[in-house]
């Protein structure tokens, strides 16, 4: 627990310093403007992961609190449509995606037994997408061409097996 407490303390300090820097360099104002209706063109914020930590890879809930990040760029919401980007977490205001190196399929059991563990272990960037832009992108992409099967991924229910079968 000491390592996690140190991580949490460092993350709070980092977020304070980052907040001051983002205020001074205009990142916060750009972020705010991108969330206004009609300004979704470059509303996805790309963050480079500097450090990540979880107390328990399987049992701990996943979320943006597991990362210390720096701002990289604002990109188009369509950035999340790449094969190496996957949905990680959703809040009331934003959808958070994980980007891995190209060629890494976090859904495949070769890269980890559980999706959220694989996402965490292979993550190199976060993509923060305002919920409005997320919904607009979903409308643009349209309905899937095939039938969907939704599987939740709590531990020890066979979700990994089903993912391999349906792949």
Describe the structure.
The chain has 167 residues and is α+β, with helices and mostly antiparallel strands. It has 5 helices and 5 strands. The chain has a 5-stranded antiparallel β-sheet. A hairpin with a 3-residue loop joins strand 3 (85-90) and strand 4. The protein is flat.
Helix amount, in percent? 25-40%
Helix vs. strand class: alpha+beta
Q: In percent terms, what proportion of residues is strand?
A: 15-25%
Order of adjacent strands in the largest pleated sheet: 2-1-5-4-3
Distance between the termini: 38 Å
Radius of gyration: 17 Å
Query: What's the pLDDT, averaged over the residues?
Result: 85
| SSE topology string | HHEEEEHEHH
Uncertain segments: none
Instruction: Give the strand tally.
Output: 5
Largest sheet: 5 strands, antiparallel
Shape: flat
Characteristic key phrases:
flat, single chain, 35% helix, 5 helices, 167 residues, alpha+beta, five-stranded antiparallel β-sheet
Quick take:
The protein contains 5 helices and 5 strands.
Chain-wise SSE layout:
Blueprint: H1 2-25, H2 27-34, E1 44-52, E2 67-75, E3 85-90, E4 94-99, H3 115-122, E5 125-130, H4 131-141, H5 159-166
Antiparallel strand pairs: 1-2, 1-5, 3-4, 4-5
